Amino acid sequence: MSLQSDKFLDDSEVKVFDPEHRRKLAFNIAQYDKKVIDGKHQYADLETAKLRAAALKRKVIENMDKYLIEFEANFIKRGGKVIWAQDADEAIREIVAILKRVDCKMVVKSKSMTTEEVHLNQNLEKAGIESVETDLGEFIVQQRDEPPYHIVTPAMHLSKEDVAKTFNEKFGLPPSSTPQEITLWVRNRLRAKYQVAEAGITGANFLIADTGAIAVTENEGNAFMSVAFPKVHIAIAGIEKLIPSLTDLDLFWPLLATHGTGQNVTVYNSIMTGPRQPDEKDGPEEMYVVLLDNGRTELLAQEQQREALACIRCGACLNGCPIYKGVGGHAYGTTYSGPIGSVITPHLRGMEEFRHLSYASSLCGKCTEVCPVKIELHKHLLFNRRDSVKEGIPTKTERWTFTFWKKAMLSRKLMNKGGAKGKNFILQNFFKTQWGSRRELPRVAPKSFNEMWKEKMGMK
After folding, report:
1. What pLDDT, in 10s, does the model give residues 230-255?
2. In 3D, which of 3, 1, 4 has the Cα closest to residue 342?
3. Which domain holds residue 411?
4. pTM confidence score
5. What is the pLDDT of residue 127?
6. At what angle do helices 3-16 and 19-39 cross, to 10 degrees?
7. Is 87 helix (H, G, I), strand (E, B) or coil?
């Protein structure tokens, strides 16, 4: 097992057997489930909408080179600059260089999982630049020095009492502070930050090829504020965020909102096409889009698995997954948790260290059922398992065990050998650890069904 695998098992065990953690997570996901039912009522035919979205995203995946070049050309036409980053190190190097050039001391940033992927906050801190999260959930977990717990809801693992305690310890607010009081306090604090920050950093929910624009979706207005005041706007996005046309947003925005938060559409949806133009009164003087690869082309090269790049980061698969509901987000040890994280992380960060995530699944198919772009996630988990074996990653013991197991399963004669006593001895002495200390090993019956059938039918 890898170090990551051992850590996942240890952390998962702690979370699964923590009743308070399970209670908070169950409560918060239940609220989400109720809202999604309401959100889906806006559709006369949700299945057709999902099929259309899936077809468009797969069209982009199969022609990604064309759409990336189209996006770049159209964005540059309006004065924007595009930076191609092969990996996280290159992305950080380029972003820090821009910020140093404009003598930036502080950036305000909106919620972005891509910035989490490249560990932007930590790297800016090393460069002597303050990075302020402006999304309320991200601001909360930043104060706790924690990564986001969920793709959409960063503080899903916390109760209102937990948040009040954090703000009491960090800022001296009364421990009895209500969510409304904390929100107002954060809003006032951030207003001052917006006015003095030299740069704003956002992600991009969608990159629009035919317009050369980015679309940012949010519920608080903080992302818009992060680009309205500073003179420099940097957007960082994975290359898979492309959609062909501006007109496709009327399909993707409601799907993202419905499956992400249960809304008909999110409160704020902004389309940004570049820096401020001569006839415009506000907006940044400079705008950059960092197009991040960071392992995505490795996944793109896998013909069967590349459809995982269609993900629009709605988080629906996390909320439906029985594993995520037990262990939560932090146990995964990755930027992207839940089913989608288990599928893409071995490709983005290495199969050897992260193949175990593809086994952290019941294969119930709920993730596939709820996906708005119809990614067959449960199949991709199996593809990852297959590929890890092909790459020779499993240990010798594991390979030999399954070699003998397969040989026995393909031969009725071998299956019947040893009798119940011998089989139970093998199970108790060789499989007890793998089965888990909290589960009782099944006992092999004195006679197999095959043997009983032969006796019943008088066969030899």
Report:
1. 999 999 999 999 999 999 999 999 99
2. 4
3. 406-457
4. 0.90
5. 97
6. 90
7. coil
